[in-house]
Design a protein that fits this description.
Layout (H helix, E strand, L loop, with lengths): L3 H10 L4 H14 L6 H66 L4
Helix pairs in contact: 1-2
Length: about 110
């Protein structure tokens, strides 16, 4: 909070007449009614820090979930690769049996 009386005294000491010094201080105060105080800024700083901490925690949880999904997906892909190999082996066996029956049947 600004000590307006002190500000007026400073202006008077600098050579302003009392009425002019008071007018300058009133003008300055009217222009700065919405100005933030140190307390306002500290309060906002704490809110920002709190939000930053919450955001970092959420990001960490999301990263952890992504890592878990990546691990599961890699396992699923390996399993799918094994399944494809078995399917190919079975198809090769069926193709071999059909070829034998078609071309090498004892009749």
């Amino acid at each position: 909070m600004i000590d307006t009386h002190r500000e007026v005294e400073i202006l008077i000491a600098a050579g302003f007449e009392k009425e002019k010094a008071e007018a300058v201080v009133r003008f300055y105060m009217s222009r700065n009614e919405d100005a933030a105080t140190k307390i306002d800024i500290v309060g906002l700083q704490h809110k920002v820090e709190s939000l930053e901490s919450k955001l970092e925690a959420k990001i960490s949880r999301v990263e952890s979930k992504i890592d878990n999904l990546e691990t599961k997906l890699n396992g699923d892909i390996r399993s799918l690769g094994t399944d494809i190999k078995w399917i190919m082996a079975v198809l090769l066996a069926i193709t071999g049996m059909l070829t034998k029956l078609t071309f090498f049947n004892g009749s």
